[in-house]
Design a protein that fits this description.
Elements lengths: L1 E2 L2 E3 L2 E3 L3 E6 L6 E7 L2 H16 L2 H4 L2 H17 L1 H12 L3 H21 L6 E3 L6 E9 L2 E5 L5 H14 L3 E6 L5 H13 L6 E5 L2 H10 L5 E5 L2 H14 L2 E5 L5 E4 L5 H13 L11 E5 H17 L18 H16 L3 E4 L14 E4 L16 E7 L2 H8 L9 E3 L3 H10 L6 E2 L18 E2 L4 H7 L1 E9 L13
Parallel strand pairs: 1-5, 8-9, 8-11, 9-10, 11-12, 13-14, 13-18, 14-17, 16-17, 18-19
Antiparallel strand pairs: 2-3, 4-5, 6-7, 7-21, 12-20, 15-16
Helix pairs in contact: 1-8, 3-5, 3-7, 4-5, 4-7, 5-6, 6-15, 8-9, 10-11
Bound molecules: nicotinamide-adenine-dinucleotide.
The site of nicotinamide-adenine-dinucleotide has 31 residues, from helix 8 and helix 9.
């Protein structure tokens, strides 16, 4: 079995305990992971705190920080095959996807490397004579980062890149489900030459490791990606240290198709939107909202595509849908599907949990027209699409916005005016018009409502890892006046 270690204060070390990681394709233990509890978390946060204020990192210029980030980007690109294979092995995300995604992750580090020396303060036109006042932009402090199992290298890059560009130090908790790629990534951090303590990477369970980290008095900001339940606990923990939070949570994103849409394009985008990453994607377009006259044709084409998907070993380049990351997730998806069927949803395809090893679940389509069911409100985080139809544009919009989430959305129509109208009226952080799942380091990303707050990606993400300090300087040689006379 492979053994992985934590990376704390520039050293690789075993955790306070260990646990086994299971191969999602077979269910067999394949690696031993270190488990951090309170003591490991304390060591990591103390290391990050010392590095922030006392070490070489504190004295480094912004350009030097940028150079280290460029080096890290190159190392990620060079090591992409190893990282991709580990992510596939430990989480079941198919190798086709991990290979493409990790190659692109390098460009996130490059983008933030370039921004490191473009974070400027400002000089204020203050309303007092003989006074200069300026704002310095300083790193916000030690950042606690928490990520879920899916796309961990990507979800951490959108946090680590801007945090390091801004001069912060950090402790990253990899998900207990599939931490191997991030624990391996720590080797690249060391190789890139970041001073010890700047980046600390560990793993452990939410209730112990995650709680200790998010409550820690020396943590200033928490960057969290995960589900709303854990997010609530994280926010409650932050009542102790009053750390600021950014929350990237789940979704129940609408995928709206009008009868005038290019249906071939829309079918392909819907397949990618719900079955890519075996549906374990925060932006999964999990609610198809389709104009009634094209519903039957669209569903027939979608069913044919879904049934032709190659399901298999995630390590096989030909595989299109692999296993879910954990047995727990497989059971969660099946439970929601069976509850939806009991509530009246019509199974168009899939919906039968396979026997045998591995956490597989078939691409599933539920026709939910005219019923109210969990499948329209709950995030499955699996390959399950729920379908509703509409007659009018107003009805389409009402169905789209009928959710407590608000992460992503897709609209397929050839009517430009309508596309613009929807981009204004949909309550979601991302609207894709005649496309889906496009992301870029240059474009901010984040949600409304239960999908969280804060934006990752783009210029503004760097500023979220800074705070301003206001500096006042008198330019007068006159002595400070009598304190009892106001100026
Ligand atoms: P989860 O919320 O159960 O766990 C996420 C992380 O939080 C894990 O590392 C876990 O250990 C940690 N955690 C759990 N309890 C904690 C606590 N009390 N204190 C501190 N940390 C704690 O999520 P999951 O089931 O692993 O992942 C799936 C969820 O993540 C879905 O809802 C999905 O939509 C969401 N997600 C969102 C985005 C986004 O960018 N918006 C991206 C990917 C995934």
């Amino acid at each position: 079995m492979r053994r992985f270690q934590h990376y704390i204060a520039g050293q690789f070390a075993d955790g306070e305990a260990r646990f086994e990681s299971l191969d999602p394709a077979t269910g067999a233990a394949w690696a031993e992971m270190p488990e951090a509890r309170e003591a490991d978390v304390n060591s990591a946060v103390e290391a990050a705190h010392s590095a922030l204020y006392d070490g070489p990192w504190a004295r480094m210029t912004a350009s030097e920080r940028g150079r280290l980030l460029y080096r890290l980007a190159d190392l990620v690109a060079e090591n992409a095959p190893v990282l991709a294979e580990l992510e596939t092995r430990d989480t079941g995300k198919i190798i086709r996807e991990t290979s493409a995604q990790i190659a692109y992750v390098a460009s996130y580090y490059r983008y933030y490397a370039g921004l490191a020396d473009k974070i400027e303060g400002s000089f204020l036109p203050i309303d007092k004579p003989d006074m200069d006042v300026w704002l310095r932009r300083e790193p916000v402090g030690v950042v606690a980062m928490i990520v879920p199992w899916n796309s961990q290298l990507f979800l951490s890059a959108v946090k680590i890149g801007p945090a390091l560009a801004a001069g912060c130090t950090l402790v990253l908790k990899a998900s207990e489900d599939g931490p191997a790629p991030l624990l391996e990534f720590a080797r690249l951090v060391k190789e890139a030459g970041f001073p010890e303590g700047v980046v600390n990477i560990l793993t452990g369970f939410g209730a112990s490791c995650g709680a200790a980290l998010t409550r820690h008095p020396k943590v200033a900001h928490i960057a969290f990606t995960g589900g709303p339940e854990a997010a609530r606990r994280v926010v409650a923990n932050s009542a102790d240290n009053l750390a600021s939070t950014s929350l990237e949570l789940g979704g129940k994103s609408p995928f709206i198709v009008f009868a005038d849409a290019d249906l071939t394009s829309a079918v392909n985008a819907q397949v990618a939107g719900i079955f890519a990453a075996t549906g374990q994607s925060c932006v999964a377009g999990s609610r198809l909202i389709i104009e009634r006259p094209v519903k039957d044709e669209f569903l027939a084409r979608l069913k044919a595509k879904a049934e032709a998907i190659r399901i298999g070993s995630p390590l096989d380049m030909a595989t299109e849908v692999g296993p879910l990351a954990t047995r727990r997730q497989q059971e969660h998806v099946d439970r929601l599907v069976q509850a939806s069927v009991s509530a009246g949803a019509r199974l168009v395809t899939g919906g039968v949990k396979p026997e045998g090893p591995g956490n597989y679940y078939p691409p599933t389509i539920l026709d939910c027209d005219g019923i109210s069911s969990l499948s329209l409100t709950e995030e499955f985080f699996g390959p399950v699409l729920s379908v509703q139809s509409f007659e009018t544009e107003a009805e389409a919009l009402r169905l789209a916005n009928d959710t407590r989430y608000g992460l992503a959305s897709g609209v397929f129509t050839q009517n430009l005016a309508r596309a613009h109208r929807f981009s204004r009226q949909i309550r979601a952080g991302v609207v894709w018009l005649n496309t889906y799942r496009a992301v870029s380091p240059i474009a901010p990303f984040g949600g409304y409502g239960l999908s969280g707050h804060g934006r990752e990606g783009g210029l503004s993400a760097v500023l979220d890892y800074t705070r301003t300090k206001t500096v006042w300087l008198t330019t007068s040689d006159a002595p400070f006046p009598d304190p009892f006379v106001m100026r």
